[in-house]
Fold this sequence. Notes:
Layout (H helix, E strand, L loop, with lengths): L4 E6 L5 H10 L3 E6 L4 H7 L3 E4 L25 E4 L1 H9 L3 E17 L12 E14 L5 E5 L7 E4 L4 E4 L11 H12 L8 H16 L4 E5 L3 H14 L3 E7 L7 H12 L3 E6 L1 H8 L5 H23 L4 E3 L4 H8 L23 E3 L7 H10 L4 H4 L19 H20 L8 E15 L2 E14 L7 E2 L4 H14 L3 E6 L13
Parallel strand pairs: 1-2, 1-3, 3-4, 4-9, 10-11, 10-13, 11-12, 13-14, 16-18
Antiparallel strand pairs: 5-6, 5-7, 7-8, 8-9, 15-16, 16-17
Helix pairs in contact: 5-6, 5-11, 6-11, 13-14
Bound molecules: xanthosine-5'-monophosphate.
The site of xanthosine-5'-monophosphate has 16 residues, from loops.
Amino acid sequence: MEKEEILIIDFGGQYNQLIARRVREKNVFCEVVPHTVSIEKIKEKDPKGIIFTGGPSSIYASDAPKCDERVFELGVPILGICYGMQFMAYTLGGDVKRADKREYGQMEVKLNNKSKLFKGFEDTNICLMSHTDYVDILPEGFKNIASSNTCKIAAMENVEKDFYGVQFHPEVNHTIDGDKIIENFVIDICGCKALWKMDYFTINTIEKLKEKIKDKKALCALSGGVDSSVAAVLLSKAIGNNLTCIFVDHGLLRKNEVEEVEKIFTEKFDVNFVKVDARERFLKKLKGVTSPEKKRKIIGEEFIRVFEEEAKKIGKVDYLVQGTIYPDVIESGLGKSSVIKSHHNVGGLPEHVDFKEIVEPLRDLFKDEVRKVGKEVGLPDYLVNRQPFPGPGLAIRIIGDKKKKKLDILKDADYIFRDEISKSNLDKELSQYFAVLTDTRSVGVMGDERTYDYMVALRAVITDDFMTAKFAQIPYDVLDRVSKRIVNEVEHVNRIVYDITSKPPATIEWE
Ligand code: XMP
């Protein structure tokens, strides 16, 4: 495949991943790199264009993020967004000033639609502004190509050098048709041909894996989630039964999940599939444990132990396969991490497994791209479109002590909820939906009998990034059906509640 890349230089803005998404949506490959990236590294990547992101700093702050100024000498088109525009203006000899107050919100901006950047626009557009500093004097060779009532220079260009800056944020939906500005930049100005398509990626990746691994052996920890399943299938297409997949059944998966994963990987793909029944082992370890953090730690560690034991039986392998995807790379690369919960991803690195190298075939892809590859390689829709499921599984959805009986109650209740959501065609709209078994029991009446049974909570959220989320406004009749079915079909449940908190202040999972 012909090489074609846009490099996104990160100055710390909150929408950086969105910029990358927008570029990828135009079928152009891009990477986000920190502003400290060396000029040699940039040259090595040989990008067709560069985008500077926004960021919270003022260019005059002592710790203001900057990148190597030689980036302006590469002869490559550059688009600076918000802080990125100010950095460009300041570095090239313009002047940046601080306004008395911050400008935030959707503003009407007058655009010079003769500029290549604004091709196809009317002469005004609604754009999202979010800044205090602004460009006051343009650098030499630049022209003002946009303005609003409050911002005199809302965009600038130097057509000779193909340098552009916008004070607003084209990457967010609040800027109407903002993605068209990104398209004008990457396609018309940088000359990208939109080569980044998932079928190319799939064929190319399988070929590369074949070349790299040859007749050596690889090992994959399969969780049944989308990422590890897609990674395993790519490997299986490349090296067939030189791949061994280890699937640890810790008993904390959803109803029918173990059977579904086993069926796919034993019937559809030519791999060595090892299912480890570790249900008793995990339940024993979790006995009496009620602290959410402790549960997470125990499950994470135990998972690695089981995986190591199985791997040892196989002996030395050359490659360990991981389903790392691009958001994982960006987050760890830039040192952002959550301290709210210790997230555990099945497939974390075991220490005592004898392997030479890690293979991460999905490390350049976003989740929806991984799903496209999954479809491409023949994974069934229900697996590819799965909602996220946490590594510690149902353990963090049973409040308090875990007992086999409680697990069975939760699995059945959760299954009914998912079934009704899917029958109501709400599954595409909801980002995540599941049942939680609380440790509250309450009095009810069934027939003429008093009952004293568990309360199940239903949770459904809508979110893009899972960092914040809104509770979903599921129609009452759907909730009614779910509630009736659960109390009728699942023993020991006599009360259902719906969680109407958003994140923050709640988190999505209850533990
Ligand atoms: P919270 O509960 O933190 O969840 O709002 C945000 C998203 O992360 C998922 N989650 C996890 N995923 N290992 C995972 O792989 C974990 O330990 C874990 N804990 C939470 C959660 O399901 C939601 O999608």
